[in-house]
Structure formats: C-alpha cells, structure tokens
Specification:
Number of strands: 20
Strand content: over 45%
Largest sheet: 11 strands, antiparallel
Oligomer: single chain
Order of helices and strands: HEEEEEEEEEHEEEEEEEEHEEEH
Distance between the termini: 134 Å
C-alpha cells in the first residue's frame, strides 16, 4: 500500500512539473511585435566598387533584432548584412525587413575615374553625335518673365529642333557640311516657308568657363553631382572672365548640378541669381538627355530644297 501511495504521489508531482514547464515554455514563446526599423541613413551615394555600411535598429528593443537585407537590382548594388557595394552606374532600392515591417534605402551609384576630369570626359563632342536633348529655360524678375522649352534631336551632321516660346512654335533643321552649318528655320506652322542662314564652324571655339569645372568641387547627392556650398563664390568669379560680361551686373548666387550614367550626361541644371541693370533676375535652365545612339533623322524634301536654293544663290 505504501508503494502505491508513493507511486500516486510521484505521478502527481510529475504532472505538476510538466504543467509548470508547459507554462514556462508558453511564456518563452510569446514574442514582441516589431513596430519600427530605424536606419542609420535612408540614402546612400557611392561610386562603383565602393562599400558603405548601413545599420538597422529594430524597435522596440525587446523585439527580435534579426533583419533581412535585399537589393532590388543586384546589377547596380549588392547588400549583405547592411554592407552595400556599388556595382554599376544607376540607382536601386535596398529593402530592409524585420517581422512584418519594412524600410528602404535608396542607393545611387556613379563611376568616377580619378585619373581624369570626369566633366571634360562627359562633355566631349563625340558623346553628343546621336541623342535627344530637352531644355527648359526661364528668366524671371521685376522686368522679365521668359519661359522657353526646346527639344533637339541630333543625328550626326543633322539636327532637328522645336522651340516653344511665347505661345509660338519655331521649327529648325541644321545641316553640317565640312565647316559650314546650314540652318533652315520655319517661324510658323501655318506657313511652308524655310528661312536659311549659314554659319562657319570655328573648331577652335571653346567654352572657357567649362574648363574651370572640376569634379572635386561637387558632391554626390541623390544621384546628382551638386556644387559644394564652399565653391559657390569661387564659381561666381568665373563669369568675370567671360568676354562681354558686364561688370556692373552683380551675381549673387549660382547653383549647378548634373547626373551622369554610364559615362553619359543625362541631366544638367543651373540657376543664376543676379542684378541686371539694377533689377533682380533669376535664370534657370535644365537639360535632359536621352536616346543616345537611337536617333534617325532625314531632312524633309522642302527643307533640303530650301537649302539647295540658298547654296545656288550664294
């Protein structure tokens, strides 16, 4: 009988131990829900081959700190445990996830050859023999308000340009033959008349102030090379050396930025704030380039006839 009682007591004790352990295990499996992922930065600007580490903190602190990193386009940038590496020009997003919460890091990658001036290389004429350029220009102030948009298609020696200005559309073709450029312009879509002018191309002409641009004076932000604040005054002085610039006109601010992808200029923006004849003026211009190597232009017969007629008369 004592043995039976001892057996019952042992079983009762064992059951209590199992129940206690079960409650303990249940308590251990209760997890804290992830509420937020805080990143050390949400934007990364790096060069090809360069690496940068982004840290992620999961909140609340009691939640699991296990984080998953994934690159949207590994051909642009890769990521492993927060270490991001630039692979090729372009931009992509890194997804950071923990539990049901996600956050994102935008990555901009650019290639820079430190042995050459990147700006000189990008602005070489050979880069613009076949492409499309869309330019917006505005000049505003107390005595000026000009808005203009132009689209230029370039195919070797032939260009086609449309200009929207003051509600009018101006269309122009240019044809380069040797060192002569023939320009045929139509001032009104309602008239089939092409006005032809010629210009002699001086291959020695250079835009002097572009020689002053140095890639080291720019910082890479949001995929753009942006002029450093510390360099603004230095760049303002460049205009003093431009022939024909009126020293009485005071330049008060200058901003320039550009985007380069695969060694090609994709976008350029500048802004000039100045006093012109004692009146404040703001000039802004943006150029967007696209369709490199994809343009195919043919001069229409009526335009070619106008150019041929001009040649015959001159």
């Amino acid at each position: 009988m004592k043995t039976i009682k001892s057996s019952h007591a042992f079983r009762r004790l064992l059951a209590l131990m199992v129940i206690g352990i079960s409650f303990l295990l249940v308590g251990c499996t209760v997890t804290t829900t992830v509420e937020e992922i805080v990143l050390s930065t949400e934007e990364v600007n790096i060069k090809v081959g360069e690496e940068v580490t982004v840290t992620a903190t999961v909140l609340p602190a009691e939640a699991s700190q296990t984080v998953k990193w994934e690159s949207e386009d590994t051909s642009i940038a890769t990521v492993k445990d927060g270490k991001i590496k630039g692979v090729a020009d372009g931009s992509t997003e890194i997804t950071v996830s923990a539990g049901d919460v996600t956050n994102f890091v935008t990555v901009y990658v650019a290639s820079v050859n430190n042995n050459t001036n990147l700006i000189d290389k990008v602005l070489e004429d050979t880069n613009f023999v076949n492409c499309v350029s869309v330019m917006t220009f505005s000049m505003t102030g107390t005595d000026a308000d000009v808005q203009m948009t132009s689209t230029t298609k370039i195919d070797g020696n032939v260009t086609f340009t449309t200009i929207e200005l003051a509600g009018e559309t101006i269309t122009s073709y240019t044809l380069k033959e040797n060192n002569t450029i023939y320009s045929a312009t139509n001032m009104s879509a309602e008239e089939d008349f092409w006005f032809v002018l010629t210009t002699t191309l001086d291959t020695t002409i250079e835009i002097a102030y572009l020689d002053e641009f140095n890639i080291d004076d720019f910082t890479l932000t949001g995929g753009y090379y942006v002029l450093k604040d510390s360099k603004v005054q230095e760049y303002l002085s460049i205009f003093d050396d431009i022939e024909g610039y009126d020293e009485n006109n005071e330049l008060t601010d200058f901003d320039v930025k550009f985007k380069i992808v695969d060694g090609k200029l994709m976008e350029m923006y500048f802004k000039i704030v100045m006093t012109l004849d004692a009146l404040p003026q703001t000039i802004e211009s943006q150029m967007v380039f696209s369709d490199y190597g994809k343009v195919n232009l043919i001069i229409p017969d009526e335009v070619q006839n106008a150019i041929d007629e001009y040649k015959a008369q001159n």
